[in-house]
Automatic annotation (TrEMBL):
Membrane topology type: Single-pass membrane protein
Gene Ontology cellular-component terms listed: MICOS complex
Family: Belongs to the MICOS complex subunit Mic10 family.
Compartments (UniProt record): Mitochondrion inner membrane
Positions of transmembrane segments: 22-40
Assembly: Component of the mitochondrial contact site and cristae organizing system (MICOS) complex.
InterPro entries (alphabetical): Mic10
Protein name: MICOS complex subunit MIC10
Entry keyword set: Membrane, Mitochondrion, Mitochondrion inner membrane, Transmembrane, Transmembrane helix
Function field: Component of the MICOS complex, a large protein complex of the mitochondrial inner membrane that plays crucial roles in the maintenance of crista junctions, inner membrane architecture, and formation of contact sites to the outer membrane.
Amino acid sequence: MAATFAEDQYGRKVDRCLSDTLLKFGGGMILGSVFSLVFFKRRAWPIIMGSGFGVGVAYNNCERSLNSAK
């Protein structure tokens, strides 16, 4: 059996956090763009708000993942 080092586990968690952040940021931006085009007469604030919500959710998930005992 190959032993996994703590650094490798931490690196995998950070990689997972970065990919999660990119996905949630992109999803929030896309959703904000759709709302901006359909409901808010092409204003910028829905895009910014959707992206911010995506980054906030990703940050919360990363914090929980990195602070876990496993």
